[in-house]
Amino acid sequence: MCDDELAEVTVPQIWAGVDIGKEHHHCVVVDERGERLLSRRVFNDESVLLELIADVLALSEDTLWAVNINHGGAALLISLLLSHEQPMVYITGLAVHQASAAYRGQGKTDEKDAFVIADQARMRKDLGLLRPGDEIAVDLRTLTARRLDLVNDRTRQTNRLRAQLLEFLPALERALNLSKKGPVVLLTSYQVPARHPSQRGHADRNLAEEPQGEERGRAR
User: Fold this and answer.
1) Residue 82: closest CA among 174, 184, 1, 3
2) How far apart (Å, rounded) are the C-alpha atoms in residues 43 and 50?
3) From the CB of residue 89, how many other CB atoms can be counted at a distance below 10 Å?
4) What is residue 182's predicted lDDT score, i.e. its pLDDT?
């Protein structure tokens, strides 16, 4: 995208500003008067972001989205917006910080930043669009596709592991939450029941109860 390429879109009815975070984003939607229509903190997860997009478009399909980061934690949201053919502009973090000085009493930092992003997108006419053909957009689609493959692979592996546990150790399958890292690490250390510490305890007790030395000879 060229820096001098301006947002060539019909004047939108609402503006959705998203303050990007690593695990969570905050979205604020404003109308043509700058009044808030929606304010929501969302988890950086595909299903949650799709729900956000649907709710914003329910307010108006003529929406202009704005983000303050165009890489990293924003990759999934940007990819989803592009796949839904949603117009989107990028406002630098520095521009948001400088503009924030003019906004007072806007609440928490993330929510305030999201409001500033939305309001700046509403007022400014010099913002360039992120387009599907941009190099950044292509890279984001590639990364998102790779991420989806990894998620699907993990789901298949978890299902196979659950099936094996259900066959040999149904009680353990019920007890372990394999969506968490800890239980999976536990199973990599103790692949069979005999290696579990409680099982070793039984083996140690059996060994201790066996006759030793001369006692073993007399036992024979």
Assistant:
1) 1
2) 11
3) 23
4) 82
**What is the rounded distance in angstroms from the CA atom of residue 38 to the CA atom of residue 35?**
9
> Tell me, what amino acid is at 50?
L
| Section 129-155 average pLDDT | 73
| Fold exhibited by the domain 14-132 | Nucleotidyltransferase; domain 5 (3.30.420)
Q: Which two tokens stand for residue 11?
A: 């004047």
Instruction: Give the pLDDT confidence score for residue 146 in this predicted structure.
Output: 78
Provide the β-strand partners of residue 67. 18, 90
Statement: residue 4 has pLDDT above 70: no
Spatial distance between the Cα atoms of 103 and 17, rounded to a whole number of angstroms: 15
Model-wide pTM > 0.85: no
DSSP structural state of residue 153: H
pLDDT tier, 204 (very low <50, low <70, confident <90, very high otherwise): very low
Identify whether the C-beta of residue 161 lies closer than 8 Å to the C-beta of residue 179.
no
Distance CA 6, CA 132 (A): 15
